[in-house]
Amino acid sequence: MDYQNRVGSKKGGGGLAGFSETNRHRKEQLRKLAQEHIDFEKDPYHFRNHLGHIECRLCLTAHISDASYLAHTQGRKHQMNLARRQVKEETEKNNNDNTIISTNSVRVKKNVIKIGRPGYKITKIKDPVTRQLGLLFELNYPEIGLDVVPRYRIMSAFEQRVENPPDRKYQYLLIAAEPYETCAFKLPSTEIDQREAKMWSYYDKDTNEFFLQLFFRNEKDSRATRNYITNQGVNGSL
């Protein structure tokens, strides 16, 4: 074998490594370092999707390996987002701290004891015009706190930590009112029609009942709605 044209190499040394070999070796070293010293299971932003790729939930980026994700966490973008998240969490903690101020201006912590789940009823409904399918939730809060109004929010499968791994086919409806436990309802991940007449909530203070109606949107129903409006001359939103 001719060794005289291999610049910078010695006989038996194998030659100098190129850029691709050096880069591959660096990534392999980072991967081993990450496996030895970093526990990704404790990282709340590390998520492996169904394709086997790594996703950063904080920065909404995708990476092909743990080494790539580790390099990303040391970058400027991830560090800035971490700082912003920390400031946001501290601000929310100060604003949502369950405290009350007495007449002596002494801050007293407010302890809320949960008394169980409220009674509820779910009714399947269907819009006679658009043929959209929907649900009507009725919850009863006989022991609800003073000046407390039930609140609700829609949560994606990736926000919850009860079912693991998360299933993108579902989403969750949360309804909360002190001193009752928060109720979570598992719904299909079909887009919800957010128009005012389609999705609404009402709390009856006399009977302590909370009502929430929602409809699921689909392209077929959207076409039916537009045709009905055009043919019947209906004004306003449905």
From TrEMBL:
- Gene Ontology CC, one term: U2 snRNP
Instruction: Give all residue intervals belonging to the C2H2-type domain.
Output: 55-78
Q: Which InterPro entries match?
A: SF3A2 (IPR052092), SF3A2_dom (IPR031781), Znf_C2H2_type (IPR013087)
Keyword ATP-binding (UniProt)? no
Write down a Pfam family by its short name: SF3A2
Q: Which domain of life is it from?
A: Eukaryota
Where in this chain does the record put each SF3A2 domain? 115-210
Q: Where is this region: Disordered?
A: 1-23
Q: Identify the keywords attached in UniProt to this record, alphabetized.
A: Metal-binding, Nucleus, Zinc, Zinc-finger
GO terms under biological process: spliceosomal complex assembly
Task: Please list the GO terms describing molecular function.
Answer: zinc ion binding
Record protein name field:
Putative splicing factor 3A subunit 2
Q: What species is this protein from?
A: Nadsonia fulvescens var. elongata DSM 6958
